Amino acid sequence: MHGNFVWYELMTTDTKAAEAFYTNVVGWSARDASMPGIEYTLFYAGDRQVAGLMTMPDGALDMKVPPAWLGYVAVDDVDAAAAKIAAEGGNVHRAPDDIPGVGRFAIVTDPHGAAFALFKGTGEAPPLDQMAPGNTGWHELMAGDLDTAFEFYSKLFGWTKDQAMDMGEMGVYQIFASGGKQIGGMMTKPKDIPAPYWLYYFNVEALDAAIERTKSGGGQIVLEPMEVPGGAWIVQCTDPQGALFALVAPKR
């Protein structure tokens, strides 16, 4: 599993509102995780746990960090990966720690400041159909600099370059693979975007209906629907609390 995204977590200011929004928009169901000492909600696609939801920690609010999705990437050794990130110019924001009965994790940023998490579970993860409804079908990095960012992640996770698309003035969009399978893309962020970030695309069955659910639920469209190579359709949105997310569907 090393180098694959295995979990997604929304840290937000209003978990009840976020739960209602995403269960409606993406079609997830939600259940309390019953974790001692912490309120944590699990999102399910069918009978599969696919994401988590929690209130933002006080420290993040004090630092004016906005609500956001965080992706967890599987590694063979969390401590070694965290040390490698620090050595390669990234930062470890939460040192490696254990979640009893679940696994070990750390929260980090790449050298340009894009946040993600490292994870190693206590058991074997079940095989995942990346394109199944409710799963996360694509992972996209708006990088501080494409070339140095790719080198960083390639050293860390073993990601390899796949197709590269020339986006004209926007630069090159580099698709990357883990274990030979395309899992995402990255490009140098436009100058008007203040900071690098990871964006996660949740699979829905049809895009237009999901857009209407997003709007009626209080979300906003920040990048209008577009068709991408391969025939899928995407849209980028913010939820009512301001967290950025995206949707991908095989049809409008």
From TrEMBL:
Ranges for domain VOC: 4-121, 135-250
| Protein name, as recorded | VOC family protein
What Pfam families is this protein classified in? Glyoxalase
PANTHER family reported for this sequence: GB|AAF24581.1, GLYOXALASE-RELATED
